[in-house]
Amino acid sequence: MADGRHAERQLVDANHGLTSLRRRGRWRQAAHAFCTLRPRTLRPNVFSYSIAISAHEQARAWTRGLRLLSGMRSVRVAPNVYSFSGVLGSCLRIGPWRLALVLLALMPIVAVPPDEEDVGFGSQLAALEKPSKWELAVCVLRRMRCLEVLPNRICYSATLSAEEPGRQWRIAVQLLRDMHSVRILPDEISQSSGLSACERGGQWARAMQILQRMPGCRITPNDFSYNGAISACASVGGWQRALRLEGAMARGRVVLDEIGHNGLLGSCEAAGLWALALSLLLRMGLCRCTPDDISYNSALPACGRAGRWQSTLRLVQAVWLARLTPSKLSYNSAVASWEQRGASSTCWQPCCSHRSHSLPRREGDFTVEADRPKVKALTDELLKLKCHSLWLRRDMLNWRFYQSLFPRGQGHPQKAEEDIDTFLQRYNFTSEHQHLEQGGLSPLMLASIEGNITIIKKLVEGKADVNELMTWDIKDAQLEGHHTALSLAAALSTRTTVLTLLNLKADLYIPKDRLGSNALMTAARFGNSDVLPLLVGGPSDLSLQNNFGGRPLHVASISENPSATRTLLQLRCDPDTATNIGCPVLCFSPQYGTSPGHAEMLLKARADPNISRAPVGASAISLSENWMRKVREGKATLAETNLALCNRGTPLHFAALNGSLEIVKLLLEYQADQDATWSDQKITPLALAEQQGQMAVVALLKSAAAGPASS
């Protein structure tokens, strides 16, 4: 008798050990420990088998678990629901799912109690949510009914969650009805899954019915529920219903988030309600919601089709400030509205052409002086909206940066003198050193951006470190890395500000951004041509390279100001300089879609129109060979083709590939060779243009090849 109790205690201890190993994910050790229970002295029981099967389930070894289950009868151990559940879960997830249905049929034969069956079904249905095997989930649910096992709320919720990605709205609605018929109140998960299925299927009426029934199920609709119904209404143009839902949210004190706003904006776009779309965009900032690509790409076409060119200009500037990308539809709508009213379609290029290289572009410079006051006023208004939104979110680091941009937006007007306390109060600082605790820009950096000479001098006199490094990335402005007050001023401020900082012993070489660019390259990238001569410490500075082998002239050619390229050429930069991968400066502008004025400046400075270079260095050669291989295999993207073209491609190849019509004209005027070939496939510029569908370039090259007689 004592020996029996001792063996029983040993088995309990062994089962505890198995459980511990399984919970820690050590399924191999658990399987080995189970094997030690085989001798007659310590016979495993149903709990031992269940734990071992569960360990094999974790290891995704469904065949081993099935062997253990089938062997239980031979040692006279009756399986329970947990034994079946482990093997069932493995079969449903990774094994043969038909075998899982056989196991479901066997469960009542081995006399598993109905309530335990229900637990097993619920857990395995939940396992089907992630793979989205909705057909199998429905099959399991039906099998439960055949076995006269009543599904509970967990089973229905799991099945609905599995169906949602499959857009099976009919089944979702039927399951919700079944729950009501068996007097099971759907929970929040079930209702939300049903709403999502109806939303994806465009069934606004069904979505509204589900939403209306939620209070009767003791569920308060939340933002997720309303978003689903609003999106369903918006997908079929039901903007009035969507607005009524938005009103119901306000009455229920539910805040509309970005998804809900985008749903409303989508319905406004479909209905052409440009004024309502603008109102919703404005309200997003007040509701602490940040408009994204979807928001602007819904509002822009609505305004464009209505001919509201001033509104589209305002939205385009907002897109630029938010570092977002307008869609082709938005671009075309905006340009069409500008052309209808005789406005300059190039007025948005300085804002966003360097950010959206995938869009077709209208090449040219901003030259309409009459539009400048309007653009300044719009910039000021957009900055106020942005600052207000950041203030409501208490995002003080970004708020201070945008506050410092106001003078830049107005052309850096002369500031009235102020003391340091007033300046700090204006930026919500309690002391000069608060940024050391909070992060973000220092008072000196903010004063440098806004060009506040008086405050700069007072702060440095008060022992502020003029070479203090920025410990925060300004992602909105692409200022990331180790910047100082000097490099920030070089990017965003005036010549006087930069000269003041240099006189106060600011170091030219301490600032380095993420690409390894110093203050000179930062100024060149932002096109701040006025400050470039001040930042050249000697002739060698003009040939310094960043981490990607780019020199100041390369960086200037991707800015929106050709004057930056002209200034560097006047400082004796080599117009034929190339990067490590072989890309000359003349090939940069067509790649990045910047102004053709850069190419014109370089050609006037006697840059070689037929220049072609090879990569230098083992790393550059290896990268180039990889890109060339992709081109040969026909797997290269446009960006990879541009990179491969750096290896012996000519400027005309680059211009033809990227559809830069104005640059093609310039190169032909400077005697660029149309018959130049690239790679072992002997690809000409004309062939590249034809491959990319650049038909305007194709026509120009063919006309030039035919000679004067053809014209």
TrEMBL record:
Domain of life: Eukaryota
Cell cycle found in the keyword field: no
Pfam hit, one: Ank_2
InterPro entries according to UniProt: Ankyrin_rpt (IPR002110), Ankyrin_rpt-contain_sf (IPR036770), PPR_rpt (IPR002885), TPR-like_helical_dom_sf (IPR011990)
GO molecular function terms attached to this record: mRNA binding
Gene3D superfamilies attached to this UniProt entry: Ankyrin repeat-containing domain, Tetratricopeptide repeat domain
ANK repeat placement: 439-471, 515-547, 647-679
Key word Lipid biosynthesis present: no
UniProt KW keywords: ANK repeat
Protein name: Pentatricopeptide repeat-containing protein, chloroplastic
Lineage per the UniProt record: Eukaryota, Sar, Alveolata, Dinophyceae, Suessiales
